[in-house]
Design a protein that fits this description.
Blueprint lengths: L1 H24 L1 H36 L4 H18 L3 H10 L2 H33 L13
Helix pairs in contact: 1-2, 2-3, 2-4, 3-4, 3-5
């Protein structure tokens, strides 16, 4: 349901911004701003993409996990898609996502949401399992020996 809302709300916001900004500064200036933000976004995307690749390479060489670097790379890719979409709202969000701090914020919030979903699904699975299974049906294998 929320996905439908996003696909309806974002174009409406973009149209309202086009009309408001276009009537205030003119259609050619509005068009120029969209082109300039796309060019700036492309430059920043390339720069940030190389930084993410360097971070992944450094993580692999250091023997640390690359998960966080991969998530940053995914968010840079999403930022590129937003920058390719014409509009002020998507450009602003895409440009913000090209910088490290907004991506860290998205990762933190998204991580909490994902953990909450996992906890809910475990609780619902445990609740349905307790109705169908008894403790005698569960086999525990201790692999430490």
């Amino acid at each position: 349901m929320w996905l439908i809302l996003v696909f309806v709300a974002i174009p409406l916001v973009e149209v309202l911004l086009f009309l408001t900004i276009g009537s205030a500064i003119g259609i050619l200036s509005t068009f120029a701003i969209i082109i300039v933000t796309a060019l700036i976004g492309g430059f920043l995307l390339r720069r940030q993409g190389f930084l993410v690749l360097h971070s992944i390479s450094t993580s692999l060489e250091g023997g640390t996990t690359v998960a966080r670097s991969l998530v940053h790379g995914l968010l840079v890719f999403v930022a590129a898609l937003l920058l390719l979409t014409p509009g002020f709202f998507t450009d602003a969000f895409g440009l913000a996502m090209l910088f490290h701090r907004p991506r860290e914020f998205i990762i933190a919030v998204g991580g909490r949401v994902i953990l909450d979903q996992i906890r809910r699904s475990r609780r619902s699975a445990a609740g349905s399992r307790s109705k169908d299974w008894s403790d005698d049906d569960i086999i525990v294998i201790d692999a430490d020996d």
